[in-house]
Amino acid sequence: MKKFLLSAAVAALALGAASASALAADKYKACWVYVGSIGDFGYTYQHDQGRLDVVKALGDKVETAYVENVPESDSATAIERLARDGCKLIFTTSFGFMDATIDVAKKYPDVKFEHATGFKSAENVATYNAKFHEGRYVIGQIAAKMSKTGSAGYIVSFPIPEVVAGINAFMRGAQSVNPDFKIKVIWVNSWFDPAKEADAAKVLFSQGVDILVQHTDSAAGMQVAEEQGKLAFGQASDMIKFGPKAQLTAIVDNWGPYYVRRVQEAMDGTWKTAQSWEGLKEGVVNMAPFTNMPDDVAKAAAETVEGIKAGTVNPFMGKITKQDGTVVGEDGKMLPDADILGMNWYVKGVDDKLPQ
Amino acid sequence: MDALIPILLTIVTAATPLVLAGIGELLVERAGVLNLGVEGMMIMGAVAGFGAAFVTGSPYLGILASIAAGMAMALLFGFLTLTLATNQTATGLAITLLGLGLSGLIGKPFTGQPITRLPNWDGIDILVVFSFLLAGAVSWFLFRSRAGLIVRAVGDNHTSAHTLGYPVIRVRYLAVLFGGACAGLAGGYLSLSYTPQWIEGMTAGKGWIALALVVFASWRPWRLLAGAYLFGAISILAFTVQTFALGIPSQLLSALPYIVTIVALVIISRNRLMLRANTPACLGRPFVPDR
Amino acid sequence: MLILERRVERARLWMWASPVLALVLTIIAGGIIFALAGVDPLHGLYTYFISPLMDGWDREKLIAKAAPLVLIGVGLAVCYTANVWNIGAEGQFVAGALLAGLVPVYFSGWQDASVMAVMLLLGVLGGLLWAMIPAALRVRFHANEILTSLMLVYVVRLAYDWAVRGPLRDPHAMNFPKTVRFDGWQVLPAWGEIHLGAFFALVAALVLYVVMVKMLKGFELRALGSSPRAARFAGFSEHRAVYFVFAVSGALAGLAGACDVMGVSRQLQAPYEPNYGFVAIIVAFLGRLNPIGVIFAGLLLALSYMGGEAAKVSLGVSDNIAKVFQGILLFFILACDTLILYRIRWQGRG
Q: Which among A184, A193, A222 is the top mutation candidate for probing chain B, defined by the most B β-carbons within 10 Å of its own β-carbon?
């Protein structure tokens, strides 16, 4: 009797499952794997905004799914589950998912994959990344013009190339205005710990800097700047709500246009593997409105943005002196992409040491 | 000198949530109950406090809401471990899981929204002041009042406390609720004052540090206060040292608060008699009266 | 109000009925949660509890996920039986993974069966040595192991982070924090998705079951756990027992760490916070500190993870709903367990 009841229950549940999955049969399914939670109001939040843009733009023709809080050491399970669940195009949004994405892609040649910020691709695995350092050059210039002490505080998470390139681009921007500009760096060793970020911000302000730059996700540093009457730059999202008198601008991740384009291509059958690396020009990196600064500074910043878009200005163009005094690059030429994507050295003027 | 005062104020704000949650858990453990759900109660306090302040515009109502949310989670913990005599360790961990999930669901509409911060003077607000009063009050209560004597008796030997006619379960319920209120308040301090915003998982392990500090303090309130300030001070000093760019690996500096806490505990613990006198002997053991 | 009445002996009926009752209650509560989240409750429950068991891939993944939980959980069960509170298994896990990962980094060309054995042994050694710190601090200085073992989790995580970003970094990985990929003999053999770690978990559980139930050592540890004073009079050494249980639980956690990097991710990468060591605490208690019980508890927890992930993917519910659901499931299981030892009565005041 007990067995019968149990199997009846299973059958009923199975029926429920069958009826629900039949509904979604003819839609194109695009899926996302996130490293954090979509409520982090930072990196993952911005990727999910991109997913929502896809839903908005393509409406009924597309079905989306996502898995959040996926640990990097066991991401293959989540990625493979999506592939088995009928996802045709899967975006894996953290560097740590790289090898797992490649492994799963080999097993599912008919599914298309897109891996963010990595360097391994395949027939069915494209990579995409954003030139965040372009935005960092712009804020470097603004910081050098706005700082009264000639120094900025810089809160950072982990020393990965994107972060290191960001620091260098910021310094190059600042040095183009004030060659003696200084930064003080604090590594909080976490992408996500608002209290630590706030502590680091307070420590930096106590050390005499008057502008805060961050490469961590939360708006905690911005709030500290607002309270102490200092200035700051937002990261990942526009944080003006948290610092109406403090935010100068913010570097906003805007994955929507890229996601919409790639999903559309996949639906049309024109999707091809590629290594996309876009920035201000393509709108993947946006600058929030220039606020809390004199008009001439805002105007100059806008000009720099235009220059970067036009290709006449770039943080890694021309000769660059490294921290150890050696010189790389040539006048009028860009540093090779690979050198920026794998950057592991500081430009001259950065008072910090990188783990080697 | 100019740099010193802001650094001291930063240490105060860093230590306050640890003091609030730690003192609450200290009383709970003195009554013989081990509640590993501090992190879960704390984050519920954070989201409820933020939510109430966001909706009503008053951070003070936020404080009340955070206390209420912490107590609600504690009540659930109490019902399971005290009325149903479930395993305290596992139940506490389940409370943490539930709290992290539930707070994320409740907090969804609050992501990326600002609120009015609790009024403060250079970071010192009523909750900071209250954390000192709380440590003093709990210390007085435990060692100078009759009710505190009963709490300690219940934690040291619930069987004889019961024989003497003390209501073991009721005392433990009250202690657990008090602990929940304190943990909720600590969460409220995070989302209303320390970093006035709501982000999923924003407690980031603070509840665990508070738990460890209770042990560090060998269940004495003033020592807990000292421990929290030691932990906060080392964390902040580690950041300060980083700004000098000496080339010390930042991971080593980040690990310092933990290492120093362990070393300090080892030094304190060498006095075994003192330690034994303060450890609640019935910690973590369920009590079911024989009838 | 509700009161409990101790049963004279464990109720055989409830030993079996309690998990069933817990499941029924969870299904009802789960149905309500899914309904509130706007998901058809039947479909939701099917996805959560049954779909992870419906095909081979899911079942294999389930076992692979349960392996580290069981491996760590049985060690912790032994620890807690002796009333020693190792809550830092997560750190011992990471230490094991780190030490095992040194071999492929420094001896990438070492390719025969011996390299696998050496890596596994290094994993065991890493976990064991890291566990010896809280053990020695407790024995020598009476330092409470709850604090020391927990704090050491954060310390080893940072040490791991430093190592993987610095000396162990793969020179061809564009300066990202990961080592070279493990290859050939450095990777655990697997059947489908199930790697050798699952086998170790089973063996560890069976061996510890025999030790705890059939051998004097088990009696000694239980005696020290339940009445330390009496055990000391019987001539059992508390110090030796502390070292022993920390060694066992640390070694198993370290082995689990080695198996995780050798069988699943096949590299060290940062950040590395799988949290198996913390979840295994729940597993140990859910298995009633019995090694065989831990196997079932580990499978159940793994099911709740796989079900949660399936629900996220096919129903679009958030990670948070999965966590709430997991919490409620645990509450019901723990509460229903009460029925084994106690009768529940309703009594008016008076």
A: A193
Cα separation, A146 vs A211, in Å, equals 8
pTM of the model: 0.92
Each of the 350 residues of chain C gets a pLDDT tens digit; together they read 777 877 777 777 777 788 788 878 888 988 888 888 888 999 988 988 888 888 899 999 999 999 999 999 999 999 999 989 999 999 999 999 999 999 999 998 899 999 999 999 999 999 999 999 999 999 999 898 988 999 999 999 999 999 999 899 998 888 889 999 999 999 999 998 899 999 999 999 999 999 998 888 998 899 888 888 888 888 888 899 999 999 999 999 999 999 999 999 999 998 898 889 999 998 998 888 999 999 999 999 999 888 888 888 888 788 888 788 888 888 888 888 888 778 877 776 54
Q: A310 to chain B, minimum CA–CA distance in Å?
A: 33
Query: A355 contacts in B (CB within 8 Å)?
Result: 249
Q: Give me the interface pTM, i.e. the ipTM.
A: 0.92
Q: What is the dihedral of CA A142, A146, A151, A157, to 10 degrees?
A: -50
Residue of C nearest to B262 (CA): C148
Displacement of CA C3 from its chain's centroid (Å): 33
CB A320 within 8 A of CB A151: no
Q: Which two three-digit tokens encode residue B24? A: 């609450």
What are the contacts of B147-151 at 24+ separation with CB within 8 A?
B151/B27, B151/B30, B151/B31, B151/B175
Q: How far away is chain C from the Cα of A356, in angstroms, using its nearest Cα?
A: 5
Q: For residue B195, give the nearest of A40, A198, A204 by CB distance.
A: A198
User: How many Cβ contacts (< 8 angstroms) between chains B and C?
Assistant: 141
Minimal Cβ distance to A242: which of B14, B114, B204: B114
The answer to whether the beta carbons of residues B150 and B35 sit under 8 Å apart is: no
Q: Nearest CA of chain C to the CA of A341: how many Å?
A: 7
Tokens coding A135? 């935005």
3-class secondary-structure state, position C149: helix
Contacts of C77 (CB under 8 A, 6+ apart): C208, C284, C287, C289, C290, C291, C294
Q: Is C63 on the interface with B (CB under 8 A)?
A: no
Chain A nearest CA to B13, separation (Å): 9
